[in-house]
Protein: Glycosyltransferase
Organism: hydrothermal vent metagenome
Amino acid sequence: PDIVKYSIRESHQNDYLKAADFINYSADICILQHEFGIFGGNSGVYILPLINRLKVPLLVTFHTVLKEPTFSEKAIISEIGKKADKIAVMSKMAVSFLVEIYQIQRKKITIIRHGFPEFDYENHSSYKQKFHLEDKITLMTFGLLSRGKGIETAIRALPRVVEKFPNIVYLIIGKTHPGVIKASGEEYRHFLKRLVQKNKLGKHVVFIDSFLEEADLCAYLSATDIYITPYPSEAQITSGTLSYATGAGAAVVSTPYWHATELLDKGRGILFPFKDPEGLALELLQLLENPAKMKTIRNRAFAYGQKFTWPLQGEKYLKTAELAIKGYHTPKIYKEKTIDLALLPLLNLSHIKRLTDTTGMLQHARYNIPDFRHGYCLDDNSRALLAMNMVYDRQKEPEAISLMSTYLSYINYMQNPDGSFRNFLSYDHKYLDKKSSEDAFGRTIWALGFLLAHSPNDAFFQIASQLFNSSINIFQQLKSLRGIANTLLGISYYLNRFPWDEGMVNIMSELSDKLTNAYEKKSGHDWQWFEPILTYDNGLLPASLFCTYEKIENENYLKIAKESMTFLESIIFKGDHIALIGNNGWYRKGEKRARFSQQPIDAMAMVLMYEKAYLVAENKKDYLHKMFTSYMWFLGENDLRLPLYDYETKGCCDGLEKEGVNRNQGAESTLAYLLSHLIVLEAFEKEKTF
């Protein structure tokens, strides 16, 4: 129709972004009707980038507020709540859920009850005549059919009632829910019809398999004596059908789900227990045997409902929208941040310990449960050694010493006689390779170098020295740029402990030259990078050159570190957050970049890069700001506006997917978060010294 100016295809993420731009230039306010199952992505996550791009006030109506949301559902509702200027819900319980479960500010929330049209209450008998029901007692339930309606309870209650009141007709009005049709066809409707036949109710139950126009629906409700909502569970925060029935002045008999308990209070309806046909039959009989009681309930319901007709509710929406517009302030696109320690979760090693056994740190997890099937790897145990060393260096935590011993033992076990390392070990302690990747080798040298500079005791220092020194002969053989970069980080810490080692300074220079030679060969005026493709751990390359410059003070190292960092941030920074290169295709020069999946190790590399730049270059405040912005990717300042850090498990989700977060919380992602957290804390302390 002409009134529709822009359409969003559910699963097309770019449509949501374009819609935000359209709204910004064509509307005074955005009104979001939120319901799960409407928007694309996991739990409807695609709506978050849209609302985050808005430059107009946002009024949100939550149709469903869950008491026990999943991780993604809670994150999405919380983020919408932060962004919304005003929020409308339809019940008091929804308000308490939003405040207590989702931590949304109470002052944003207003109750606007589910509205309905104005009913002709006085002409009840004429509507019964219209449908030839004048000599019938009319019961009714309407809405999209699904097992969540509990209609079988009402059918099972009828035989006892029909026995005493044989002129009863129960109207079941509505099409089957599209989701049910897709999953199981008309199985539920057929089940109900078989139940009708089994109970010999063929003359008393009528299925109207259609989606009625508003006028017809209102007419049927006006002809109804008793309306039944036999939902099988309490988790129903809003029921439009219940609101309509109350507004029509029907005598409602319902199970005590949340909305019914609130709406039918003070004698406006009758409640019976969940999944209790006998209880429903008893309440129906008592009503039918007492017409005066039924009339009183109908009058109370109709009188109460007159406060919530569409014209009156529409006025409330208009006033709420006006308040949202009046109180709106255009957000700053790029607000400078210092490190705000109040935003950092408390340092907690629960998930680190969960992933660690007496052998080392396990690679993977199913959600937050360790997955033994994939065993262990050198990469993760080296990162874990580095992280626990940093924890002990900060807090002198005895538990960190114990964990360090485990990880160092694993590294020792995996070293080959020639100084190289194996990487993978099965859960039953079988070697799975003969030699690790150069990346894994470099990460191990990084961890060992840090341990040499920050050893908590002599025993650790001695074993780290032996492992590090045994590996030195491998350094100059390295070809992988990231293997070289990781090794340079380790060498920089080694030189903090042994600054007089000229031989190691020469090795550092030689390895750094490999990076700068690659840069000079592959970079150009429109591509200032070391390779013709941006892949993973990108920030590591400039970071290592900043470290080299700190030790050698070769201006070319600093120049290339700055140029490559500037190029990388021109691609990664998107306004107030970073958008990492996705591993589903990466970003090859001249081609389209992949947006997903975004990986935690890449966010950590950005944090590390800015920390190293902060220590040796100018513009320290700018680097500090960008470092903290990179860290905040973990806490939800990302493309989908979803946190990857799990405040409940203290782990970190494995990636930001197109559909939402990857809920698995393996070692790599959890350590990437922990290392980023520790780097931010260290930078905060160093800021005080500059």
Remarks:
- Residues 333-337 have pLDDT under 50 and may be disordered.
- The CA atoms of residues 120 and 222 lie 7 Å apart.
